[in-house]
Amino acid sequence: MKKISALFYLAFFFFVLFFNSPFLLAADQSVEGMEYVEVSNEKNVRIKFSRLIMGTDHLAQEDWLGTSSRKISEDDIIKVLDEAASLGINLFDTAPIYVGDIENKLGKWMASWMKRNPGKQVYALSKGGFPFDLYWSKKLPDGINSNCLQEMLKRKEFLAEGDDSLPNAPTGTYASRLFGSKEQIEERVRKEMEHTITNLGVHPTVYLMHRDDGDFINFEPVKRSQTSVKTIMEALSSDPLHAKFSFLGWSNWKPHRITRSLKLAEKLPDLAKPVFNSPYFSLFEMSERAIHAGGVQVTHEDMMDSNFLRGIKIMSYSPLGGASILDKPEPCWVNARKDARRKSGQGDPYWKNVYHSIFTCANEERYNRVVDFTKEFNEKHKTSYTVDQMVNAYVLAHPRTDFMVIGSLNVEQLRRTVASLKLSRMLSEQDLDYLYYGRE
Description:
This protein is an alpha/beta fold. The protein has one domain (2-14, 50-128, 186-212, 224-437): TIM Barrel (Alpha-Beta Barrel), CATH 3.20.20. The chain is globular, with a radius of gyration of 21 Å. It has helices at 2-6, 74-86, 102-116, 134-137, 147-155, 182-200, 229-236, 239-242, 255-267, 300-304, 332-345, 351-358, 361-381, 387-396, 411-418, 420-424, 429-437; strands at residues 36-40, 46-50, 52-55, 91-93, 123-128, 132-133, 174-175, 206-209, 216-217, 220-221, 247-251, 274-278, 313-316, 403-406. It has an 8-stranded parallel beta barrel.
């Protein structure tokens, strides 16, 4: 269950602080070359996190790059995490469902690294709110589930009347963990949090609700009203949960729901203040079909607007956070598309979404444009940046990109991705418009 479920988040693809409040956690540990952004919560806890956040979704997944599986040892994982910290990254993204028990491995590495580097601090970002994967559980979760989901499962003959078993549920069939009363949501998320704390050995510093309230059958959303944002926030702000994290955030939530959460936090001081929002954002936009169930993206126009979702830090994830979908021989795009189509045709539950979501005519045009732009940029500035560095720099250069989650699998990819920070400072608004729209 962990392996397949992990495919539905970051897929493809792809931290500290000093302040004069009573909540002092650590001294400023900035590393030259890395950029940092300070965040604060409703209790005035402040931490400077690195703009690049190390994602671990596929770090321990041996078959992530295809049939020619890479062999991964504990030393390989430690080497990448050590390098990330040495480059100034101090926030590490993980989750209890990620492949290879990586949340547990990360917790052990964090304890070891801080022991080896006294006085320095690294932080964990973990997630809850994952919908229940009915394809793996073969039954509805205990508690109250939406009538709309149950009726649709019956209509499609996946669920029998008076039964909660789902022996034939297709991949991409999920029941929301954020549906129902405050008490039910609190209990469901609390169980996830228990796994995370056991794995990490400490409380996560940042905790994201990885999906909003919603159900899916075969990756298609079930049409129904959503649990109110207030009810979800009240559950997450209850003492048993809120005491276990410092910063709350959303992942794959739509803008109007995020705006609502910010207004509620301003109006009701007992609620945990949402600090982070993690949407999909890339030069290669998703089509109407998301790369995973419930995926939410923001656009070039959104991220160029300095007032977009003002009041929350945006940490984007994208297809080129270090391990590139375009790590293919020339003709690169053509071969990447062909490989994705083959995997889709074989019924791979991840790639059958990715193929239709990413390999569009508009994205192919943007790919060809960024290849030519990178070549001309290098000739003009006497540099040697790669295409994936340019696409990462494109994301980082937008006014509303506070952080970017990266998925580097080795030291070389890490160093290359960190170098995108410098490149991003060299790109103008006109460059960003050209890369997206194709106009001079």
